[in-house]
Amino acid sequence: MRLFGPLMALVLVGILAGIGWWKTGGQGRTRTDGGHVSGYQTEATKPYGWLRWLTTVDHRDIGIMYIVFGTVAALWGGMDAMMVRTELLTASETVWGNETYNALFTTHGITMIFFFVVPVFAGIANYFLPILIDADDMAFPRVNAIAFWLLPPALVLVRAGLITELIAKILAPVLGSLLDPLLAVRPPTTSWTMYTPLSIAQVNPEVDLMLLGLHLSGIGTTLGAINIIVTIITERGDGIDWATLDIFSWTMLTQSGLIIFAFPLLGSALIMLLMDRNFGTTFFTLDGGGPILWQHLFWFWGHPEVYILFLPATGLTSLILPKFAGRKLFGFKFIVYSTLAIGVLSFGVWAHHMFTTGVDPRIRASFMAVTIAIAIPSAVKTFNWMTTMWQGAIKLTAPMILVIGGVGTFIIGGVTGVFLASIPVDMAFQGTYYVVGHFHFIIMGIIAMAMVAASYYWYPILTRRMYDQRLARVQSVLLIIGVTVTFTTMLVLGYFGLPRRYAEYPQQFELLQQITTLGAYLIMLSVGMWLVNLVQSMRTGPIVMDADVWGLKETDQFTREWQWFERTLDEDRRID
């Protein structure tokens, strides 16, 4: 089971190489990289094969690498979650053990938040944002490449404990005690929040590697955000002003602004934690700022981070949903204003994670008020999506099924979040499965569903082929069912007061935990169906000859990326 992540990484890296071979028609010909330097076009050639992917600065190539990398991380982190749910099938410790269980939910949380969601959205933005704003490339193509290539070593550092353990066990019969240093590097068990004093007291050297990896990923993420902002501001084509900028670009612009303010502070906190662990400083000890200082710094990053993950999903929903509702997006300006409002308010809610820490009641009340207030712009988006569908000509394609499911799960996650914003309710539910259910209705609801919807919606552009649409619809419905079963049951478990983060629990909760695990297995099955469909269709799916695969010209929604795709198909036909 634990070999699944590395093996899947090798499989998907092979797929990436296959994409390069397939895009060149199996030939060793070169292609232009589309770089843009100092206001004039430069044309260079890209080598064939692995060297192309290692040296490319083309925004579409980098976008594909981000997406493949994020998919690898998602499958690896998802396998952690499946192992956690397998342990929780029984009330007693039966499968992995407490230490392994603690390591699994630590690496699951970190992998999914840092290496799945943000990189996938960065990949989508890299590929499509220059096309949507009629730019030649990202503003800084080489910085774009650097931002991506910081992520793979960061993931290796974060997950080094598992990697070194596997290497040591494989080579132990030959090298024996020489491998003891590798065995000393164990998977971290700090939880993804890395609360002090636990994260300071643990002697496991992997905790230091994890902190360095997270800092490295933060640098890459910040570089990518700067590039997106500069690209949107300076590289827009003629006729594209702020009033005509598409909704996905607006959400990526806002998300990138949040990243620039949030991630450097997290990087500073990680450095301080490293110094406390290794150099005897007292940033987070009782002699210095204390453990509560870490929580303030972490959550000042952590709650804007929720919207860093969420806002691009709303942009994709706002972009895709009208296409299959047969209507233009209702209240475009209000959705833009609500996006900007969420971006501003997101920096005023962090201490609602700390209601149980003894914070001054007056301060708690102010954070409760802002947390409730941030639900208003979120509700604006929801009602605009619903109004867009009202009396529309709905086409229940796989992308549409997923965005409708995402809106539904977002409503559940949002309403449960409003409850948690209330101090008395939070005091009762903090540290229970209720919080896990609320959070995952957002992460595995609208966020994951928007990603999968985008993969279906833009698949013809990415691959020039079409997938099995019937299988895609079945997969979409199964994903919605799995998410609803899994996290609704978690809300019930939390309502009954079951604490999270324990491998063992009272016997009376066993049936509900088994239902939750069944829902998680349904999610795993749906993800497998999605992966098989898209990979197999890339080989054998019908070749797209007409760019208007979704009939968007009928409703005057044949937007810039599809117009670009139509021109590309015409050029390919002329070359052939």
UniProtKB/TrEMBL annotation:
Entry's localization field: Membrane
Entry keyword set: Electron transport, Heme, Iron, Membrane, Metal-binding, Respiratory chain, Transmembrane, Transmembrane helix, Transport
Transmembrane segments annotated in the record for this chain: 62-79, 113-133, 139-158, 209-233, 253-275, 306-322, 334-351, 363-380, 401-423, 435-459, 471-498, 518-535
Keyword Cell cycle listed: no
GO MF annotations, alphabetized: cytochrome-c oxidase activity; heme binding
UniProt-listed InterPro entries: Cyt_c_oxase-like_su1_dom (IPR023616), Cyt_c_oxase-like_su1_sf (IPR036927), Cyt_C_Oxase_1 (IPR000883), Cyt_c_Oxase_su1_BS (IPR023615)
Membrane-protein topology: Multi-pass membrane protein
Any single Gene Ontology cellular-component annotation: membrane
Family to which this protein belongs: Belongs to the heme-copper respiratory oxidase family.
Name the record gives this protein: Cytochrome-c oxidase
Taxonomic source organism: Halomarina oriensis
Lineage: Archaea, Methanobacteriati, Methanobacteriota, Stenosarchaea group, Halobacteria
